[in-house]
Amino acid sequence: MTSANVWFVGLDSLDADLLREAVAAGRCPNLGALLTRGATAVTKNSTGLYVGAVWPSFSTATNCARHGRACYEQLTARSYRSRIFGVRQLRGEPFWKRANEAGVRCAIVDLPKSLLSAEMNGAHVVDWGTHDPEEDGFGAAPVSLERTIRDEIGPSPFRSCDEVRRTAPEIARFRDDLIARARGREAIFAAALAQTQPTIAAIAFSEPHCSGHQLWHLHDPSHNRHDARIVAEIGDPLLDVLSAIDASVGRVLALAPPDAKILVLASHGMGRHYDGATCFDAALERLEPFLPEGVGPSLYGRVARLLDRPRSRRWSRSLRKRFGRGLPIPPRAAGRTSFMVPNNEAWAGVRVNVVGREPHGRIRPGEEYDTYLERLAVLLGELRNGATGNPVFETIVRTDTLHPLPHAEPLPDLLAEWSRTAPIDSITSRRIGIVEGRYKGLRTGDHRSDGLAIVVGPGIPAGPLSRAVLTEDLAPTLLAWAGVDWPGVDGRPIAEWCG
Questions:
Q1: Which helix (H) or strand (E) holds 454?
Q2: Which position has the higher pLDDT, 263 or 75?
Q3: Is 418 helix (H, G, I), strand (E, B) or coil?
Q4: Residue 47: which of 372, 491, 401 has the closest Cα?
Q5: Residue 327 and residue 460: Cα distance in Å, rounded?
Q6: Please, what is the Cα angle at 50 between 221 and 157, to 5 degrees?
Q7: What does residue 442 show for φ and ψ, rounded to 5 degrees?
Q8: Does residue 142 have a cis peptide bond before it, meaning omega lies within 30 degrees of 0?
Q9: pTM above 0.90, yes or no
Q10: Which of 126, 231, 398, 457 has the greatest number of CB atoms lying within 10 Å of its CB?
């Protein structure tokens, strides 16, 4: 296969159904034209772990078992405490490193969860305006490009979208900042192209991610936080941002050579932020009497549970205040048979306290572990939304049936997908009574799993593929277009697009 100019446009968390709705309303003519004349495919992300895994899986062409990232915060192995999972902890190499090894020049701008490649054969920009920037923040290579960005374009209009915005003027300002950020990224991309003349050019827009989290309630009239007065005053800011992104995509693709092969990826979806994460762990603890007990709790575990009682929690907080946060208060999970672990919020994650894996394990590996998970899945299936009486979970699955995760990986043992039909301010069942915990966070939209790929270019037949493709297959396809193979990864070039 001969090499070609290759362009990639990432639309971080742009929901495919929202995109089609906007196209039908005439709000996205450029993306609509691509949908009409291009090839399309549903992209499948890691079930239950996709929120944190999608971009590393794309960039490294490996599944989350290999690159290691499933959530922004993950349990530390052999402990009950979690810590932020930074980009430096990722395993695997990104596709642009493989391209560079093959002598192919790249310009990579703002792809999420990327570590700056200072020795890039081409140009690299990280975290100028991504949704969840890494601790290192903005960086660019070569130095001349970083200087151009700092001197001529300036910083991103804001670093975090998670700020309180309740009035119409505040929301309008946020909308306008998102649009300005997209235009700034266009300028960065143009500067990178001018300095490098790359064979592979890639840019990602994070504005669908930020706007989806913060503005979904204004787009969805059935959302429990919908405010018709704000919509009447400023319109639908979510669609306004999407229209602006469509215009940005049009201008970016106008810079592509006529013979370029182009992949546009809506990475994963967005919908209502309805979940019961605020009360789930308490409900899980109330289920313990109905689950296998395993090994009795250690003295450490019994102390941990004692300190977790409401009155004891106040006492332990006063000790911390008096003697400092370094005081070794036992984590609450040490005395339990299972506990909730961070897994973003679209799916709940449960970790079993396994003997030999956790420091104070309760459940023996093997048959007892299997029996415990089977019984727990049944009990979770009984949980109901306290307001509606409907099940709180759509799907409950064992992680090891979906992903080739080593048993010792500090990831959930059980994954449960929240129902999004209504807010979950309380969880109930005949066994646990009712547990209340209202969500008070800022985000009104949260992620859905599948994405959408749109491909145009010479030799690529138009129309939808009859099958879904894996996110891990997309970067190998980009490299195949550039004449570069990529052995040793999980993904494979998509044959229908690489003929």
A1: strand 451-456
A2: 263
A3: strand
A4: 401
A5: 62
A6: 65
A7: -85, -30
A8: yes
A9: yes
A10: 126
